[in-house]
Amino acid sequence: MGRKWNNIKEKKASKDKNTSRIYAKFGREIYVAAKQGEPSPESNQALKFVLERAKTYSVPKHIIDRAIDKAKGGGEENFDELRYEGFGPSGSMVIVDTLTNNVNRTAADVRMTFGKNGGNMGTNGSASYMFDHTAVLGVENKSVDEVFELMMEQDLDVRDVVDEDGAVIIYAEPDQFHAVQEALTKAGVEDFTVAELAMLPQNELTLSDEDLETFEKLIDALEDLEDVQNVYHNVQLDDE
User: Fold this and answer.
1) Is residue 214 domain-shared with residue 114, that is, in the same domain?
2) One domain for residues 38 and 141
3) Fewer CB within 10 A of the terminal residue: the chain, N end or C end?
4) Is residue 31 domain-shared with residue 119, that is, in the same domain?
């Protein structure tokens, strides 16, 4: 895995200095998960997963409670999860995951953002075949050897365990997310630096300075869209 997950996360967080955008995105995701099942993480795995992710981003309790209360109250908003794929300069690949209550608006916004920022929208599958759906979990106060040994003891065949700037990052199959997290929790891990399901590129692309500047503007513009939850790409950025 060539990407440094902690650096990616820090870059996203620093871009949203007041973190309001991150909180809004989580609020929407928590509402949808709570509405689709029971509004309790004990009986709703989807909600439990979102809340675990929210914890790693320090989402305040009042944001979480408000979203769950809205779902309990029978909120009328309905959201669709949609994925868009496209290309930036020099054949760079981009995946955009959205949560929207207006499909036509979102599709138009994403297409226009690609077009205005040196990219173009592709068809379903045109980029995602070059990415792997991956569970990513990060812990501190453990060594790579300790985590590897724990994974073997639990008969968990993870993809990789690496040290990234003082944190141990575990990459695993998506369906192993909860098993890996449970094994780490039982081993004394209380907090995770990251707990995500992500699309990671199989290979990374290095762009020229000019193309990289254009590409970063494209990514920033996509992430600024209200309905966009996550943006994944295959470009090596300076601070990754």
Assistant:
1) yes
2) no
3) C
4) no
- Same domain membership, residue 108 and residue 152: no
Mean pLDDT, residues 7-12 taken together: 54
Residue 18 has pLDDT above 70, yes or no: no
Question: pLDDT at position 89, please?
Answer: 95
Which residues are within 8 A (CB) of 106 and not within 5 positions of it... i.e. 6 or more apart? 82, 98, 100, 225, 227
Average pLDDT, the chain: 89
Position 14 scores a pLDDT of: 53
Q: Which of 72, 89, 120 is the last residue of a domain?
A: 72
From 42, 72, 102, the end of a domain falls on 72
Q: Is residue 239 part of a domain?
A: no
Contact of 200 with 173, CB cutoff 8 Å: no
**Domain assignment of residue 217, given as a range:** 80-129+202-233
